[in-house]
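To whoever is on call:

I kicked off a structure prediction for a single chain this morning and the downstream step that reads the tokens threw a length-mismatch warning. I double-checked the sequence; it's 304 residues and nothing unusual in it as far as I can see. Pasting both halves so you can look.
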Amino acid sequence: MNEQIKRLEELRERTVKLLVIILTASSLITLPFIYLVAVRTYMMQLGFFILVFMGGGTFAILGFATGYFKKAKEFKASYKKIFVEAPFQEAFDKVYCDFNEGISKDIISGTNLMSMGNRYYTNDYIKGSYKNVEFERADIKIQHHTSNGKRSRTVTYFNGRWLILEFNKNFHFDLQIIGKGFSYTQKNNSFFTSEKHRRHKIKMEDIRFNENFDVYAQNEHEAFYILTPQFMDTLKNMYNYMDGNFMLGFVDDKLHVAIHTRKDAMEPSLFSSVMEPNLEEVQREINTIIHIIDRLNLDRELYK
């Protein structure tokens, strides 16, 4: 392991050197044009476009020519193999990782839990098992982009991690628990949704729980069956524990947990040495999965 880390650090240093060279060369090529065209003619807006297009184009050409992009990709893949996959292998059973893939848009859309926008990105797929509870997780970003030809606007609906937990009990509930601050959900509670598939807002007797969560379910009896006082106490504790606003959805024999952290998880930095890596974020990912399964008692016989 130490030898692998040493080689990874050498790769990181070479990649950073290439990046510095490319940025320097791009600046030396681009800045004179900005001075001649923009500064001397007082056309600063033109200078901005030169910086973006010419500077970006130069960076891209040099990045491919020098092998920088290839080395950066290799560094990222090797880092995740050592510092992400290995810790997950130690913590869980039957671990499978594909950091280039994710959870498909069709799966998330099929839950009817989220507004889906028109842009969807996903990666860092990890599958495993804990206490015989199988889980999948991936980073997901959902956005809605609009443009009228002159102006464009992009609204991020969701950016964080999505967990899907499947276990050896059968339940047939459609229950949505939305933490306050978690926006752009699809509640399926409008009159345009058929009565068979419509979720209804439900108030619980726990006042503090109602302050932190909104509950929507197709069947009120099923909601009360799941949301026992102990379960609600656990969710209230999770509300303070999670590193982002979150939502739970019981759909098609699976529990979906969406945590809106507003960032990709477990991404390496080229500018930080891997000899003494900060694995706090990776451990947080592991602890979150364990915490959800343990605290919600997903390995027990409740869901039948």
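Update from on-call: the warning came from a stale cache, not from the record. Cleared it. Sanity check on the structure: The chain has a mean pLDDT of 87.
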